[in-house]
Amino acid sequence: MSSVRLGDLGATTPRRRTTAQSSSQAAQVAGPWVRRLVIALVLVALLAVGGVFLYSSSIFSIESVHVNGAAHLTDKEVSDLAAVPSGTTLLRVDTAGIAARLESNAWVEHASVTRQFPSTLNLNVTERTIAAVVAVSSGAQGTQDWAIASDGTWLMMIPDKDSAEAASISPQVYTDAASALRITDVPYGVKPEVGAKCSDESVTNALKVVSSLTTDLVGQVTAVSATDTANTLLTLDNGIQIAFGTADNARDKERVCLQLMADHEGKISYINVRIPERPTWRALS
């Protein structure tokens, strides 16, 4: 049988009270955090349920589609390319898929799709421009005009302006084609394909030559004869013809041409700068 001193009995009571007080204080401190956690979880659950409801409902249905940036494509052509599913909503629409379909067209260099709540979808396109019109041999029919971009992408065959097919084409195509550089005399057998890159060296060299020139000369070039790369011939708006050859050393060739035309202003009809170190020129007869 054990014994306890009276003093010890009195000493145990405060320790028990201290432990109880600590537990009570811990509960008081933890209480607000627990409540906040519960509230946060409830809010997350409500948001999740609300998100699922909005995504699956017809709220924010697409009622209008706006086309921005199109000039050579009509709004109808862009809308047809986008193929926005009927009845879809701004929340469910596949913007990446629509952008990819738009960029599958040769005219479209870049496309993006943005939502404008509550009911509008914006189709934003950046178009390629016509760098030149290439007269491509079509056998017994003569030649056909093809629009080509500066990166060598074949854009389209340009039908006769008075044809029935022209009625569905944007007027901007004909406006730009009329003022564009013309590339003629391309080798027989060049077969353009819409959206494909030009693989003919004569045509690509002609594009490189023109893109390499500065504004001092390029603005005067109206046509390029591209029988082959070595015999690329530029025709200026004043009638002077320049045997330019390949695009190699284009700036040196341009500098020689500008200097000769300045030194013999109004007297030159032909310049040969295929070898820029040994240029030749012919005077007007």
From TrEMBL:
UniProt-annotated location(s) = Membrane
Predominant location category: membrane
Q: Where is the POTRA domain?
A: 60-128
Q: What segment(s) does the record annotate as region Disordered? A: 1-24
Q: Which GO terms describe its cellular component?
A: membrane
Q: Which domain of life is it from?
A: Bacteria
Residues passing through the membrane, by range: 37-55
- What keywords would UniProt list here? Cell cycle, Cell division, Cell inner membrane, Cell membrane, Membrane, Transmembrane, Transmembrane helix
Q: Which GO terms describe its biological process?
A: cell septum assembly
Q: Which Pfam families match?
A: FtsQ_DivIB_C (PF03799), POTRA_1 (PF08478)
Question: Which protein is depicted?
Answer: Cell division septal protein
Question: What's the source species for this entry?
Answer: Cryptobacterium curtum (strain ATCC 700683 / DSM 15641 / CCUG 43107 / 12-3)
